[in-house]
Specification:
Layout lengths: L1 H4 L12 E9 H14 L3 E2 L14 H23 L16 H48 L26 H5 L10 E9 L3 H11 L5 E6 L4 E2 L6 E2 L1 E9 L1 H14 L2 E2 L6 H57 L3 E2 L5 E9 L3 H14 L7 E5 L16 H10 L10 H16 L2 H16 L1 H5 L5 H8 L1 H18 L15 E3 L12 E3 L18 H34 L3 H32 L5 H10 L14 H20 L1 H13 L12 H4 L15 H25 L2 H25 L4 H39 L16 H8 L1
Antiparallel strand pairs: 1-10, 1-11, 2-10, 3-7, 3-8, 4-7, 5-6, 9-10, 12-13
């Protein structure tokens, strides 16, 4: 026991030692101190104002100002994106800008942009109207020329009620064209305009119903696309001319045009007037185009100037908002001259934090230094593992199940090897493993480039697990060499086969079998098993027994880790009444089965292990006969069976009664504090109060222990059976590979036609890539994940801690990305 305690600590095995610290910061240096701590990123502040709403906190106005500046910066970013410009990713550093100065600067830029946008919208709307007017003049004029049968007096446009007629006498021809003569009670009239193509059918039907068919509707598609001022999209439109008779029909038609968003424009019947108005419209369009171009260039120049500093401004505002949000978590002392904060930090980071606080005091010219001292903690500290790019993905796999309790044994240490290995047991094929290896190497080779890019959700997950993929591919190659499968094809890599056919033609290899004529194949499965009569029974037996051995070994590792947890937390009860009976129960049954498997492999015995294990329970005293593998097997089985039966009440009964006895003695004053490391307060979470430790409900403790014991006993059986998925998925992967190779590739290669061969090769490549390399990889990954989360981690891992989340500007930038 003492020897184990004196062993050096394994990196990543336990979370970093944490301490609760208190900061007393003068007001004048508070902002700079918190900013320096954000750069350091090693202190997690506690919210001391948890009972206050966000609007009752001290720095709420500064937070609102930062939020408003963030809104303006998002507005600038959207405008730059709409304009098709690129903001500078690495702008030249400008001198430090004060927050008030930046706020004023952003307000000026926003006002300028809003004003330019408003002017641009007005000009664009006028330009669209003139463009539509030009198109209507061109298209409607054709209808009017072809309809000279209408009288000039009856072909007037719209009257004074529709288009104003109070223009001065010196008005231009365009303005005169919008005037109409006096209303005529009878005669043929027309209304011309333009409408989006998507509405024209319904528009025509509505006009026909409103006038009871007393109209003539002509239409023609516009030659140019017109920009929608609302959505800024180019819309296809239709020019229409409606001939009608009567004042009442005109009123109805105008209302329908207004309802459908159709724009009506007057068109004179006189060709001379039409040409003159068209020329005037064209000249005004040219002027507007020039004005719009100048406005767009001016606006783009302003946006380019903003985009040059946009990244710096956004980072600055995000940092300032994070600083003020953190300051809102601190309390003012009674004198209102100091801020008091509390937080968690790793013990190794204390010198760095103190150095940052000293720099903040010096840089802010404060006369009073910042007080930094360690406090006693009631609640459990956060969990913090220092990982690198290689171990981070494995730690994330473990944390997805649950964050480790403070200083609890970390499964990620073993997951680094066991996870890719169990994956490879199910995926073993060194041809497929090489394909995965190439993908992993590409991701690792482009690591620097891809890490700075914004990837899709799937690609981001794949890139984050690139080192997991690397080890999975390497272990897949290793297991594939053991299985001797290269895209399901065996090769004589390590020498000649140990078997040969009974006759020269090998025609009876599948029916009669092979004979052994030399020593065993040196590494992995002998290639001669492929296609033989006993191939499937042999591989099934091998992989099934191998799965049980791996499962029992990993479950034993989990129970052993629970022993190290108990030693670390000084919990002797768990060692005596949990670890010992669990080891006895598991190994009395399934450890014994593993021993029988190894002995059978070593001796070549023909004993039926199913019969041995079943009758170990049904008839433990009967003679084993031909199923006896070694001398003394029957008395050993009886002893193991009795040990397993004794282990169940050993797990169930002693611990609750001992806990009750120790609890009662504690409050009689004889053994005060003996339960500090027992389960009474081990299960207490962060935020729980001290008075909960004094509560002891025997029935709850007993029921909890009973559930735990029953779960372990039943789980030992179900978990061992669950490891048979290694055998099942390995067999499925092998058989699928064989089917695609023999029934697709070889079948197509049997034809002399090159086209059929190419089609077969394409189908084989598609099936290999999408079914074997994608679906099978995902399936094996998920099954390996389940084996670690359920079968392995439930033996020792609580996973009820919470992560260390320090105040860090780097983490804020990553979250935004």
């Amino acid at each position: 026991m003492e020897l184990l305690k004196n062993l050096p600590e394994m990196d990543l095995m336990r979370s970093e030692k944490m301490t609760l610290v208190q900061l007393i910061i003068p007001v004048e240096s508070a902002h700079r101190a918190v900013s320096y701590l954000g750069d350091l990123g090693l202190l997690q502040f506690r919210d001391l104002n948890d009972d206050k709403s966000p609007f009752q906190r001290t720095f709420v106005n500064q937070v609102k100002r930062c939020a408003e500046m963030s809104r303006k910066l998002r507005f600038f970013k959207d405008q730059i994106h709409k304009a098709g410009l690129l903001s500078s990713v690495r702008p030249t550093l400008q001198p430090d800008v004060d927050l008030e100065a930046l706020e004023t600067q952003l307000a000026e830029h926003e006002h300028e942009l809003i004003e330019m946008n408003a002017n641009s919208e007005k000009l664009q709307q006028t330009y669209n109207e003139l463009l539509e007017f030009k198109i209507v003049l061109q298209k409607a004029g054709v209808f009017l020329v072809s309809g000279k049968i209408y009288e000039t007096a009856e072909g007037r446009e719209l009257d004074d009620n529709v288009y104003p007629s109070d223009y001065p006498e010196s008005a231009s021809l365009l303005e005169q064209a919008t005037q109409s003569g006096p209303s005529i009670s009878s005669g043929l009239r027309f209304i011309s305009g333009i409408i989006p193509k998507s509405k024209v059918l319904l528009f025509e039907r509505m006009l026909f119903r409103a006038t009871r068919g007393n109209l003539l509707f002509n239409q023609a598609p516009a030659d140019d696309l017109i920009m929608d001022p609302v959505s800024s999209e180019m819309v296809e439109k239709i020019v229409f001319v409606v001939f009608f008779s009567g004042e009442q029909a005109k009123t109805k038609i105008l209302k329908i045009c207004e309802a459908f968003g159709a724009n009506c424009y007057p068109v004179p019947e006189d060709l001379t007037k039409q040409n003159q108005i068209t020329q005037e419209v064209l000249s005004r369009l040219a002027e507007l185009e020039t004005t719009l171009d100048v406005g767009i260039r001016h606006r783009n120049a302003a946006l380019h100037s903003i985009g040059f500093h946009l990244t710096i401004w956004m980072n600055m505002v995000k940092r300032e908002k994070a600083v003020f949000d953190t300051l809102n978590m601190l309390n003012f002392d009674v004198t209102k001259k100091c801020l008091v904060g509390e937080g968690w930090c790793p013990i190794f980071a204390k010198p760095q934090i103190q150095e940052a606080l000293q720099r903040a005091t010096f840089d802010s010219n404060s006369q009073v230094g910042i007080i930094f001292h360690v406090m006693d903690a009631v609640e459990s500290p956060p969990t913090y593992f220092r990982t690198n790019t290689f171990t981070n993905a494995y730690q994330e796999i473990v944390d997805a199940y649950g964050v480790a309790k403070y200083q609890e044994a970390n499964p990620a240490v073993y997951t680094v090897i066991t996870f890719p290995f169990l994956f490879a047991v199910m995926f073993g094929d060194w041809g497929h493993g090489i394909c995965l290896l190439l993908g992993a190497l590409i991701l690792i080779a482009r690591e620097g480039k891809l890490s700075s890019q914004k990837l899709g959700s799937f690609m981001e997950m794949l890139f984050g697990g690139r080192y997991v993929l690397l080890l999975m591919s390497l272990f897949s190659i290793y297991c594939g060499l053991i299985y001797n499968e290269f895209f399901s094809v065996p090769y004589h890599i390590f020498g000649d086969s140990a078997y040969k056919c009974r006759d020269l033609s090998c025609s009876d290899a599948y029916t009669v079998g092979l004979i052994k004529y030399r020593d065993a194949y040196p590494f992995g499965v002998d290639p001669s098993w492929r296609g033989s009569r006993s191939e499937l029974p042999f591989l099934n037996s091998l992989k099934m027994k191998m799965s049980i051995l791996f499962g029992v070994a990993q479950m034993n590792l989990g129970i052993i880790l629970s022993y190290f947890n108990s030693i670390f937390f000084n919990n002797s009860l768990d060692i005596r009444y949990q670890f010992v009976p669990q080891m006895i129960f598991l190994n009395s049954l399934f450890g014994y089965l593993s021993l029988l498997i190894i002995i059978k492999w070593c001796t070549g015995s023909q004993a039926d292990l199913y019969h041995v294990m079943i009758y170990m329970f049904l008839s433990p005293f009967d003679d084993l006969g031909e199923n006896e593998l070694f001398w003394g097997q029957r008395p050993l089985q009886i002893l193991l069976l009795l040990s397993a039966l004794v282990a169940v009440p050993w797990m169930l009964f002693p611990k609750p009664f001992i806990l009750r006895k120790l609890h009662s003695e504690r409050f009689q004053g004889r053994t005060y504090g003996i339960l500090r490391s027992s389960e009474i307060d081990i299960d207490s979470e962060h935020g729980s109060a001290r008075q909960h430790e004094e509560e002891f409900n025997f029935s709850e403790v007993f029921v909890h222990q009973m559930i735990h014991s029953i779960e372990f006993v039943l789980g030992s059986v179900s978990n061992t059976a669950s490891y048979l998925r290694l055998w099942a998925l390995s067999l499925a992967h092998s058989e699928l590979s064989t089917v695609f190779y023999e029934k697709v590739l070889l079948l197509a290669w049997g034809y002399e036609n090159i086209l059929i061969r190419m089609v077969g090769l394409a189908v084989f490549a598609f099936a290999t890539a999408f079914i074997l390399l994608m679906m099978e990889t995902l399936s094996a990954f998920l099954h390996a994940l389940r084996l670690h989360w359920v079968e392995f981690q439930n033996k020792f891992y609580g996973g009820n801690g919470y992560k260390f989340k320090p105040f860090s500007f780097a983490a804020i930038a990553d979250d935004e990305d």
